[in-house]
Predict the 3D structure of the following.
Amino acid sequence: MIVKKIDLIFFVMLFFILLTNCQKQQIVQKPNVLLICVDDLRPELKSFGAEYISSPNIDALAEKGIKFQKHFVNSPSCGPSRYTLLTGQYGPAGNNALFSRANIIKQGTQKVDKSIPEWFRTYGYTTVSVGKVSHHPGGRGGKNWNDSIKVEMPNAWDKHLMPVAEWEHPRGMMHGLANGQIRVKSADMAVFQTVEGEDNSYPDGAITDEAVKQLGALARNKEKPFFLAVGIIKPHLPFGAPKTYYDRYDGVDLPEIKHSQKPKGRTTWHGSGEFMGYNRWGKNPNKDADFADDVRRHYAACVSYADAQVGKILAALKKTGADKNTIVVLWGDHGWHLGEHAIWGKHSLFEESLHAPLIIHYPGMKNEGANTDAIVETVDIFPTLCDLAEIEIPEYAHGTSLKEILIDPNAKGHYAISYKNNASTIRTSTHRMTLHQDGFVELYNHTTTEKETKNIAEEYPELVKELKVKLRTRLNLK
């Protein structure tokens, strides 16, 4: 009888041990997420058709994932674009969009929907951000963006990290040049630069080192899956990268700048104030072709430098072995004009400001390396990651899961919405319509060679009417 009781106790203990191990195994099997955000990265990558660009690491990821050739951001500026990525919702058009949301949370007078890292935390994920993921690198406010009392995304991250190295503080890192040089006045800082040195001679080297360190620690924790977001700063202004990356473009023929003239008539054109505010040695790329090429080569060098950082992060992921169970997303926060429409920068509602790369890879996916021309937008990333991780998609998400397109790259997408303070735009597979706040309309046909150089709004009133309804419905405009 005593023996039978001992046997029973033994089997009960064994049952609970096996049950616990199974539960742990289920947690381990939940996929990790690695989100890589690259600032000011237009689709200037070989995998997106820019043959002259050296981007081997991102291209290698593209060969393992699906390339969304027609991904459009929801706003042509860092702050509001990252708001849509991280909340899955359309939001304010200013760079302080996430800080405004944080203030509402602090006041506690109204319900604020959970951000994507907060949502994943509720499903047992460890969430970590490194570098520029939200608008401020490190996710803090204050004069030098390092005030831990002023948090850009409350309740989002278990850790939100920003190594500053010799650049003193996150604000210094954001607009830093080589070896600790910090921007005090834009006019006193060179618009581009290249120096002899290793990757850590520029800020992204330190961000990448920290990301690799965090990856190692997260992968060693077998109890919880991780959501790691890494924000690479380059190719944001000023264009600075080690000389080895600039040398890749020595003697390389650059493609012609398409429709390089300032547009006629009313548009969202602007005078490239951010770019023009830097020290340009009295030169204007709209009037000096050689200088324009210098700018483009330095932008390309920054793309290659950013690509190298992405390569280090992906290599570290593979080294940990966690790559076999990790969803990887590479996302550009908006486009960037390199002379198209005589603009050098973002902030317009033209295609060049809104078109950005998006690559998604997940374990076991088919159609690796495929392209899709389905039109998608940044707000789709939140529900897509939930779908791929097999967790609930929140009802408040404004986007649509892209899982169907990932399974079948020929599946249809949908139209894309973008906005500034004084105008909004809708992109279909054939047209772009931009609606100004006072009712003025731009309409462009992307099936013609003129594309966004010929406003045909007056010729197609019925199409304008149809697109207005779709745009206003999506943004809840009157």
User: Anything to note?
Assistant: The chain has two domains: 32-414, 422-478. The CA atoms of residues 208 and 309 lie 6 Å apart. The longest strand covers residues 32-38.
